[in-house]
Amino acid sequence: MFQITLRTARESCGYSESEVAAHCGITIKALKKYERNSALIPVEVINKLNLLYSVPLVLIFIGTEAKCVMSNRKNAKKK
Q: C-alpha angle with apex 71: 65 to 77, nearest 5 degrees?
């Protein structure tokens, strides 16, 4: 299954880092950390992002951005 990173979801929705951080009640530094590795994100923050982005959680890759790219490449080769 093709999945996207939190950064891709944010950028696709047209939100800036500062807008999303303010919406979630976190710092921009924390948002950047979660976008690099979503495995570190607290449940309450992922729930806020899910509502903001309107992207099903099953489409969000949980892990590092690099692993998301590798996973998507691997899945593309299977087809």
A: 140
Domain that holds residue 45: 6-78
Task: Give a yes or no: residue 1 inside a domain.
Answer: no
Question: Taking Cα atoms as reference points, which of 56, 8, 4, 65 lies closest to residue 20?
Answer: 8
What's this model's pTM, rounded to 2 decimal places?
0.83
In eight-state DSSP terms, residue 13 is H
Burial annotation 46-70 (CB, 10 A radius, 16+ → b, else e): bebbeebbebeeeebbbeebeebee
Q: Write down the mean pLDDT value for the chain.
A: 91
pLDDT band for position 19 (cuts 50, 70, 90): very high
Is residue 65, in this structure, part of any structural domain at all? yes
Q: What is the CATH number of the domain that holds 29?
A: 1.10.260.40
* Percent of the chain predicted with pLDDT > 90: 67
